[in-house]
Amino acid sequence: MHRVLIVEDESIIAMGLRHQLRALGLDTVAVAACARDALECMRRHCVELVFMDVMLSGRRDGIEAAEAIRGVREVPVIFMSAFTDGDTELRARRAGGVAFLSKPAEDSELAGVLRTIFGPLRGDGPVMDEAVSGHDGADVPV
């Protein structure tokens, strides 16, 4: 099970994301509300992925927090924000962000990003391609 850190200062958003991640087979090892707590969590836990809110409580925003985290350990960071603009997304990419999602993230969008990072997720079954199966999924008369 992949181990995730959520850095989000709104508890209801963090709880919802934690639920989404659990349904996809990921283990949220900790939730931090500010950059300082996120750094402490990175030192205490073996984290494989960080979900980072752009706007955090405290002195540092999420992008600055991600830069500090990368100083502790090289780990992929997915940025999330309710407010997106080109400049913020560019800063996030420069800080090593692997994705930038709008909050709240749709289940399908979240799963797609996670599959890009980790490959198949819990609940993913073998997918048979129409071209390989020769069947387009329509009912076949017997």
UniProtKB/TrEMBL annotation:
GO process terms (BP): phosphorelay signal transduction system
InterPro entries: Bact_response_regulator (IPR050595), CheY-like_superfamily (IPR011006), Sig_transdc_resp-reg_receiver (IPR001789)
Record PTM 4-aspartylphosphate, positions in chain: 53
Record keywords, A-Z: Phosphoprotein
Claim: Cell inner membrane is one of the keywords in the record: no
Protein name in the entry: CheY-like chemotaxis protein
Organism in which the protein naturally occurs: Desulfobaculum xiamenense
Record domain Response regulatory: where: 3-118
Keyword check for Zinc: no
Signal peptide boundaries: none
Pfam families assigned to the protein according to its UniProt record, in alphabetical order: Response_reg
